[in-house]
Amino acid sequence: MTGIIRLLVGLPVASVITFLLFMFMQRLILVEEVILAEVKDDVRIVIAEQVEDIVPQHRIPFDETDNKVEPPPPPPQIERQKSKTPTEDMTTIPGVLPEFDPPGLDGEVDFNISNRHAQPLVRIPPQYPPRALERGIEGHCNMQFDVTPDGIPVNIVALECSTPLFSRASSRAVERWRYEPEIQNGKAIWRRGVQTRLDYSLDD
Protein backbone atom coordinates (compact mmCIF):
# COMPACT_ATOMS: atom_id res chain seq x y z
CA MET A 1 0.00 0.00 0.00
CA THR A 2 2.84 2.34 0.87
CA GLY A 3 4.58 1.52 -2.44
CA ILE A 4 1.58 2.53 -4.46
CA ILE A 5 1.33 5.87 -2.66
CA ARG A 6 4.99 6.61 -3.35
CA LEU A 7 4.54 5.74 -7.04
CA LEU A 8 1.56 8.00 -7.40
CA VAL A 9 3.36 10.90 -5.73
CA GLY A 10 6.68 10.34 -7.57
CA LEU A 11 5.33 10.22 -11.14
CA PRO A 12 4.10 13.83 -11.27
CA VAL A 13 7.29 15.09 -9.66
CA ALA A 14 9.44 13.13 -12.13
CA SER A 15 7.40 14.41 -15.04
CA VAL A 16 7.86 18.03 -13.94
CA ILE A 17 11.63 17.58 -13.50
CA THR A 18 11.95 15.89 -16.90
CA PHE A 19 10.06 18.72 -18.61
CA LEU A 20 12.23 21.35 -16.98
CA LEU A 21 15.44 19.56 -18.04
CA PHE A 22 14.15 19.32 -21.60
CA MET A 23 13.45 23.06 -21.75
CA PHE A 24 16.86 23.82 -20.31
CA MET A 25 18.64 21.72 -22.92
CA GLN A 26 16.67 23.30 -25.72
CA ARG A 27 17.68 26.72 -24.47
CA LEU A 28 21.36 25.76 -24.58
CA ILE A 29 21.36 24.54 -28.15
CA LEU A 30 19.30 27.44 -29.47
CA VAL A 31 21.48 29.62 -31.89
CA GLU A 32 20.44 32.93 -33.32
CA GLU A 33 19.99 33.02 -37.08
CA VAL A 34 22.92 34.70 -38.94
CA ILE A 35 22.04 36.65 -42.06
CA LEU A 36 24.79 36.50 -44.73
CA ALA A 37 25.48 39.55 -46.78
CA GLU A 38 24.40 39.29 -50.34
CA VAL A 39 27.23 38.87 -52.85
CA LYS A 40 27.17 41.45 -55.56
CA ASP A 41 27.36 40.15 -59.06
CA ASP A 42 29.50 43.06 -60.43
CA VAL A 43 32.65 42.18 -58.43
CA ARG A 44 35.56 41.18 -60.78
CA ILE A 45 39.04 40.03 -59.96
CA VAL A 46 41.67 41.22 -62.50
CA ILE A 47 45.09 39.51 -62.41
CA ALA A 48 46.83 41.15 -65.37
CA GLU A 49 46.95 44.91 -65.48
CA GLN A 50 45.29 46.32 -68.51
CA VAL A 51 47.48 48.63 -70.57
CA GLU A 52 46.07 51.29 -72.75
CA ASP A 53 46.57 50.87 -76.46
CA ILE A 54 49.42 52.91 -77.92
CA VAL A 55 48.37 55.20 -80.67
CA PRO A 56 50.99 55.23 -83.46
CA GLN A 57 52.41 58.63 -84.20
CA HIS A 58 52.43 59.90 -87.73
CA ARG A 59 55.92 60.30 -89.18
CA ILE A 60 56.85 63.72 -90.37
CA PRO A 61 57.87 63.59 -94.04
CA PHE A 62 61.63 64.04 -94.53
CA ASP A 63 62.68 67.09 -96.41
CA GLU A 64 65.87 66.44 -98.35
CA THR A 65 66.61 70.14 -98.60
CA ASP A 66 67.04 70.44 -94.81
CA ASN A 67 70.21 68.27 -94.59
CA LYS A 68 71.64 69.03 -97.98
CA VAL A 69 75.43 69.44 -97.72
CA GLU A 70 77.28 71.47 -100.26
CA PRO A 71 80.40 69.76 -101.68
CA PRO A 72 83.76 71.36 -100.74
CA PRO A 73 85.49 73.51 -103.32
CA PRO A 74 88.13 71.78 -105.49
CA PRO A 75 91.76 72.05 -104.30
CA PRO A 76 93.85 74.78 -105.89
CA GLN A 77 95.89 73.73 -108.87
CA ILE A 78 99.66 73.99 -108.37
CA GLU A 79 101.72 74.76 -111.38
CA ARG A 80 104.48 72.24 -111.91
CA GLN A 81 107.74 73.32 -113.38
CA LYS A 82 108.43 71.48 -116.57
CA SER A 83 111.89 70.08 -117.12
CA LYS A 84 113.78 71.56 -119.97
CA THR A 85 115.03 69.19 -122.61
CA PRO A 86 118.63 69.92 -123.59
CA THR A 87 118.86 71.20 -127.14
CA GLU A 88 122.60 70.68 -127.50
CA ASP A 89 123.97 67.32 -128.51
CA MET A 90 125.82 65.51 -125.74
CA THR A 91 128.72 64.87 -128.04
CA THR A 92 129.37 68.59 -128.39
CA ILE A 93 129.60 69.19 -124.62
CA PRO A 94 133.23 69.93 -123.70
CA GLY A 95 135.05 67.34 -121.64
CA VAL A 96 136.88 64.15 -122.44
CA LEU A 97 136.38 60.81 -120.75
CA PRO A 98 139.56 59.51 -119.11
CA GLU A 99 141.25 56.64 -120.84
CA PHE A 100 142.32 53.59 -118.83
CA ASP A 101 145.02 51.16 -119.81
CA PRO A 102 143.82 47.55 -119.88
CA PRO A 103 145.12 45.48 -117.01
CA GLY A 104 148.24 43.62 -117.88
CA LEU A 105 148.68 39.93 -117.13
CA ASP A 106 152.40 39.84 -117.75
CA GLY A 107 153.23 38.67 -114.19
CA GLU A 108 151.93 35.61 -112.38
CA VAL A 109 148.77 36.02 -110.31
CA ASP A 110 148.53 34.14 -107.02
CA PHE A 111 144.93 33.25 -106.23
CA ASN A 112 145.79 31.51 -102.96
CA ILE A 113 144.56 33.01 -99.70
CA SER A 114 147.23 35.10 -97.98
CA ASN A 115 148.75 33.90 -94.74
CA ARG A 116 147.08 35.14 -91.57
CA HIS A 117 147.00 34.52 -87.87
CA ALA A 118 144.00 33.18 -85.96
CA GLN A 119 141.38 35.91 -85.56
CA PRO A 120 138.60 35.87 -82.90
CA LEU A 121 135.03 35.69 -84.19
CA VAL A 122 132.99 35.19 -81.01
CA ARG A 123 134.25 36.09 -77.55
CA ILE A 124 131.61 35.62 -74.86
CA PRO A 125 132.50 37.42 -71.60
CA PRO A 126 132.84 35.21 -68.52
CA GLN A 127 130.10 35.00 -65.92
CA TYR A 128 131.04 36.64 -62.64
CA PRO A 129 131.42 33.93 -59.96
CA PRO A 130 128.65 34.30 -57.35
CA ARG A 131 131.01 33.85 -54.40
CA ALA A 132 133.35 36.55 -55.67
CA LEU A 133 130.38 38.80 -56.39
CA GLU A 134 129.02 38.38 -52.84
CA ARG A 135 132.42 39.19 -51.33
CA GLY A 136 133.02 42.12 -53.70
CA ILE A 137 136.26 40.57 -55.07
CA GLU A 138 137.73 41.94 -58.31
CA GLY A 139 140.68 40.61 -60.28
CA HIS A 140 141.90 38.94 -63.46
CA CYS A 141 142.90 35.61 -64.96
CA ASN A 142 145.57 34.94 -67.65
CA MET A 143 144.54 32.08 -69.98
CA GLN A 144 146.40 30.00 -72.57
CA PHE A 145 144.90 27.69 -75.22
CA ASP A 146 145.33 26.28 -78.73
CA VAL A 147 143.07 26.93 -81.74
CA THR A 148 142.21 24.01 -84.01
CA PRO A 149 141.92 24.31 -87.83
CA ASP A 150 138.16 24.51 -87.23
CA GLY A 151 138.60 27.59 -84.99
CA ILE A 152 137.75 25.86 -81.68
CA PRO A 153 139.81 26.59 -78.53
CA VAL A 154 141.28 23.47 -76.87
CA ASN A 155 143.89 22.65 -74.23
CA ILE A 156 142.66 25.57 -72.09
CA VAL A 157 144.88 26.34 -69.10
CA ALA A 158 144.62 29.07 -66.45
CA LEU A 159 148.21 30.36 -66.17
CA GLU A 160 147.74 32.89 -63.38
CA CYS A 161 144.60 34.14 -61.61
CA SER A 162 144.34 36.75 -58.87
CA THR A 163 142.04 34.33 -57.03
CA PRO A 164 141.07 30.70 -57.73
CA LEU A 165 137.44 31.83 -57.87
CA PHE A 166 138.02 33.16 -61.41
CA SER A 167 139.75 30.07 -62.84
CA ARG A 168 136.70 27.91 -63.61
CA ALA A 169 134.57 30.79 -64.95
CA SER A 170 137.41 31.83 -67.28
CA SER A 171 137.86 28.31 -68.68
CA ARG A 172 134.12 27.99 -69.38
CA ALA A 173 134.09 31.33 -71.18
CA VAL A 174 137.07 30.41 -73.44
CA GLU A 175 135.41 27.10 -74.35
CA ARG A 176 132.57 29.00 -76.02
CA TRP A 177 134.85 31.26 -78.09
CA ARG A 178 135.25 30.77 -81.84
CA TYR A 179 138.15 31.81 -84.11
CA GLU A 180 139.04 32.09 -87.74
CA PRO A 181 141.84 29.54 -87.96
CA GLU A 182 145.39 30.43 -88.83
CA ILE A 183 146.15 30.16 -92.56
CA GLN A 184 149.53 29.13 -93.97
CA ASN A 185 149.98 28.62 -97.71
CA GLY A 186 146.20 28.60 -98.16
CA LYS A 187 145.55 25.91 -95.56
CA ALA A 188 144.10 26.10 -92.05
CA ILE A 189 146.56 24.96 -89.41
CA TRP A 190 146.78 24.78 -85.62
CA ARG A 191 147.62 27.87 -83.65
CA ARG A 192 149.50 27.01 -80.48
CA GLY A 193 149.92 28.95 -77.29
CA VAL A 194 147.34 31.72 -77.68
CA GLN A 195 147.27 33.83 -74.52
CA THR A 196 144.66 36.30 -73.30
CA ARG A 197 143.68 38.09 -70.11
CA LEU A 198 140.17 38.17 -68.61
CA ASP A 199 139.40 40.99 -66.20
CA TYR A 200 136.69 40.88 -63.52
CA SER A 201 135.35 44.25 -62.38
CA LEU A 202 132.23 45.00 -60.35
CA ASP A 203 131.63 48.17 -62.39
CA ASP A 204 131.02 46.19 -65.61
| Uncertain stretches | 91-98
Taken as a percent bin, the fraction of beta residues is 15-25%
The CATH superfamily of the domain at 119-200 appears as TonB
Biggest sheet descriptor? 3 strands, antiparallel
CATH class of the domain at 119-200: Alpha Beta
Q: Find the count of extended strands (DSSP E, 2+ residues).
A: 7
Helix and strand sequence: HEHEEHEEEE
By DSSP (H or I, 4+ residues per run), the number of helices equals: 3
CATH topology value of the domain at 119-200: TolA/TonB C-terminal domain
Q: Biggest sheet, strands in spatial order?
A: 3-2-7
Portion of residues within helices: 10-25%
Radius of gyration: 65 Å
How would you describe this structure in keywords?
21% helix; 3 helices; 20% strand; alpha+beta; three-stranded antiparallel β-sheet; 204 residues; two-stranded antiparallel ribbon; TolA/TonB C-terminal domain
Set down the secondary structure blueprint.
Layout: H1 2-29, E1 119-122, H2 130-135, E2 139-147, E3 153-161, H3 167-175, E4 178-180, E5 182-184, E6 187-189, E7 191-200
What would you say this structure looks like, in words?
Mean pLDDT is 77; it is low at 91-98. It is elongated and about 180 Å long. A hairpin with a 2-residue loop joins β5 and β6. The chain has a domain at 119-200: TonB (TolA/TonB C-terminal domain, 2-Layer Sandwich), CATH 3.30.2420.10. By secondary structure, it is an alpha+beta fold. The protein has helices spanning 2-29, 130-135, 167-175; strands at 119-122, 139-147, 153-161, 178-180, 182-184, 187-189, 191-200. The longest helix has 28 residues, at 2-29. The strands form three sheets. The protein has a three-stranded antiparallel sheet with strand order 3-2-7, covered by helices on one side. Strands 1-4 form a two-stranded antiparallel ribbon. Helices cover 21% and strands 20% of the residues.
